[in-house]
Amino acid sequence: MDSSVNGKSGTVVQPRDKRGRGMIGTNINHFRTQSGISLSELAERAGISKSYLSSIERNLKQNPSIQVIEKIALVLNVDLKTLLQVNLPDPEAKETPDEEWYAFVEALRQAGIEKDNVQDYKILIEFIKWYQERKQERKQG
């Protein structure tokens, strides 16, 4: 998803995640904490108030000016495009699924399996695993 700049007012039209939440503040917080810079320090070095920066980071200030975002990007030593991007790595994500998993999920969708029914399929998979283990035990025993 792209962000854009409103030419008249110079405000950033903030990119949104899948739930419609603003992402600029989330990205600023991500890069600030990665850099080990405090909220106060970033605000001071960017020449903006700490409360204003805090409201941006918490996505309460929905459309900060491009000039403010540029100042923040400069202090964080991050390209403006990078700061405005939507898909930052999730620090809590364990591992990125490989192409086979994406293909599997797509096959499930094409088969008409709804997200609401996933738990039922998990139970079915557990049963199949149990059945295969029993079958293997009988062969060995």
From TrEMBL:
Residues 1-24 are annotated as: Disordered. One of its GO terms (molecular function) is DNA-binding transcription factor activity. GO terms for cellular component: cytosol. SUPFAM superfamilies: lambda repressor-like DNA-binding domains. Keywords: DNA-binding. It comes from the Bacteria. InterPro entries: Cro/C1-type_HTH, Lambda_DNA-bd_dom_sf, TransReg_Diox_bact_type. Residues 28-83 form the HTH cro/C1-type domain. Residues 1-12 have a biased composition (Polar residues). This is Putative transcriptional regulator.
